[in-house]
Write the structure tokens for this entry.
Amino acid sequence: MADTVKINFAKLPSSLDGLIVLLAAESPGGGSAVLAPSVEALLEPAGDLFARAAAADRFEGKSGSSLELLAPTGTSATRVIVIGIGKAADLKAQDWLKLGGTIMGKLPSSAKEIGIVLDVEGADLNAEAAAEIALGLRLRAYSFDRYKTKKKPDEATAKPKVTLYIEEDSAAKRAWKKREGMGEGVILARDLVNEPANVLTPTEFAKRAGELSKLGVDVEVLGEKDLKKLGMGALLGVGQGSEQETRVVVMRWNGGKSGIAPVAFVGKGVVFDTGGISIKQAAGMEDMKGDMAGAACVVGLMHALASRKAKVNAIGLIGLVENMPDGNAQRPGDIVTSMSGQTIEIINTDAEGRLVLADVLWYAKERFKPQFMVDLATLTGAILVALGTENAGLFSNDDTLAARIYEAGLETGEKVWRLPLSSEYDKLVDSKFADMKNTGGRFGGSITAAQFIQRFVGDVPWAHLDIAGTAISSPPSEINRSWAAGWGVRLLDQMVANHYEV
């Protein structure tokens, strides 16, 4: 797993030393920056340097703005960076996370040790907020450069050590302990999605998921013989044109009371998607190494739950397959039999993710009898047309589950928007030759894909998250500069924490 920054906490310092970051709020009336008394005391040896520099640079403490003081007289600081946080009264929990990312973005790339003073006039910057800042720092610092053989001098240095100074340092350490594993889960998901498909084959993916056993997760890998015995014809049909063998990985975290039904998360893991016989155009096909982002999220989520010893019984299942065209690949017009016994006419071999989910969801339902199932998949380009890159598409047969996911999305900033399901849409995936077909036509493509998947969940409360617009190639944010966002780990960890832990 990629290392980012080393995080430590300590009590507020009595003097400035080295590279220091200070925070300034915007005056409620605007026009000036406001410092906390403890910060003013730290700057006192430098006289009126801050006031003069702020006036010269018109620094007013607005959110995201910054002011640099080089080697301020009277202190041992080599550089002081003052970051504006905006109006303190307006800050919400999510803003602290973004602030951490903003701070990391303002730091010089050569910095090895940084101190950040967490005291703001008019804001409740408590231990929980400090932990969110630390998480933002770590996520923003992430980069994926393991295949670069030539690096700039500053890229070759070790990751920086960051000390966050806060009066409640012990409480902040405890709060960070709860988030640290979740941050690692996001980074793990990013690493998996960023890996090239010649490295991250289904077998290698399964091997990396197996490393969760070090955290107490029970990991079981099903090979093609197992899948054939189970009757997973829909899943196996996707991979029959590839030399890489298909895998299903089952991850179990038993942190709740014995006998309580688990919650289940299912991820689409198409490690590379050429489209099969219905081959995609060449331009942009390299991005299809990320067609396993749903599976990556599930692995990252299981890491997060196990790391923080979540008091819940959770199952993570991922279907790992490569969709390639060769003489053995399935064709448009083929009919396959799913594990459920339902038959599927293949209209387009590039509509393969729903075939993966069909068998894995049915298996999860039948074997584990879960409280609910949530699946994640980079499923349709249509969701990008509908929602862009700011929201994932949410489809559900259960209003309570849908509302809980939506609320967790607002809390974490990993937002979702619910789209409809109805019998009128469902008819569009009926087939003349089989029980159903794997596409529903040009219009409402994300909806008809969800209608297809719904045929394999029975009466279990279920939600489908179409993350094609949010998981890969998403626009840069305060906490992510990577091609892969690790989207969904924080969302679902929050949802579990809010509603399903004992």
Observations:
- Residues 378 and 468 are 4 Å apart (CA to CA).
